[in-house]
Prior knowledge:
Blueprint: E1 4-12, E2 16-19, H1 20-37, H2 39-44, H3 55-62, E3 66-69, H4 72-76, H5 95-111, E4 120-124, H6 135-143, E5 148-152, H7 158-171, E6 177-185, E7 203-212, E8 221-230, E9 236-237, H8 247-250, E10 259-260, H9 262-283, E11 291-296, H10 301-312, H11 325-328, H12 335-342, E12 352-359, E13 363-371
Amino acid sequence: MYNVAITGTGVFTPSEVITNDDLVASFNAYADLYNAENAAEIESGAVEAKTQSSAEFIFAASGIEKRYVLNRSGVLDPARMYPALPARADDTPSYMAEIGVDAAEKAIAAAGLQASDIDLVICAASNMERAYPAIGVEIQQLLGASGFAFDMNVACSSATFGIQTASDTIRAGSIRRALVVNPEICSAHLEWRDRDCHFIFGDVATATLLERDEDLTRPHFKVKSTRCATQFSNNIRNNNGFLRRTHDAMGDQRDMQFMQNGRKVFKEVLPLVSQHIADHLVAEGVQATDLKRLWLHQANKSMNDYIGKRVLGRTPEAGEQPNILQDYANTSSAGSIIAFSQNSDDMQAGETGLICSFGAGYSVGSVIVTRA
């Protein structure tokens, strides 16, 4: 059995930004169009009028202030309200592979390695651009990595589940190094016409490089332990599963995009995650007071504040539980990795932290790491 270390991370951030004010202006224009087109039905009570959104509502509900997206114009077009991502030719890199390679190359450079040093690429994300061939294999080809690759999907927990899978493969001696890549094009599975969730998601890609912890002299985090758990629930669901779609092809099949019962999710997921983390710490002999940092899934500020308080037994101090969703919004599996990548360089040797992601499934994954 081999020990495992995280030796590099990378983050791809799109160049286009949508602020809450931008989003509200677009959504409210759409709502006005809808209400005008359906005035008679609304008057008769057959159709419910669309309620306008506001930046204050969005921030209070989520803590989000803006989000990065691959295509701003399509999302903000009141007559469209979804990203304009034209189909690409088969001999052209897919959108997911393109942004995944960017993050992966940054992680490889941070680790001081070459792509040819990689033995395994896992593309772990909430939605796949196609069923096959695997996006992971495409990323492997574009990078020039060796070994093998595959895709996996555990919704918002995909990154931590990918880290456990890669870690177990390294521990067993099958490989020396692995990349877990999380290209999340969440703007394409979001229903931007739904006031209750139109503000939640953004686009990003992250990558985590793991390797055998053998005589490493470069900065790294020792992976002390990983743990995953699932419990079936319909309260967060996407029946479509693929990125490209049109309203014409779908009609008004609302259940073909991201849906959630927010109140039930809040009530059921938070105790599940808090207990999962507590049990993981106990199993590894780690006290809550030992944790220097919590890098949590970035879904909702209130959820993270609740979990941080439950785990630590007190309100987290500044920097102990970093949030990045005010800038990135919910980026599904990538959120906890962004938080880790941007808020770990100051960790001192011997200090311990925990990466945790959770979401649809229900699913929860946690990774205990110690600065080498």
